[in-house]
Amino acid sequence: MKVSPSILNSDFSNLAEVIKFVERSGADMVHLDVMDGVFVPNMSFGPPVISDLRPLTNLTFDVHLMMQHPDRLIDAFCEAGADIINIHLESQAPIDSTLDHIRSLGKTAGLTIKPKTPAQAVFPYLDKVGLVLIMTVEPGFGGQRFMSDMMPKVEAVRKEIDRRNLTVELEVDGGINADTALIAAKSGADIAVVGSALFKSDDAPALVSSIQSIT
Ligand code: DX5
Ligand code: ZN
Question: What was the pLDDT predicted at 204?
Answer without folding.
Answer: 98
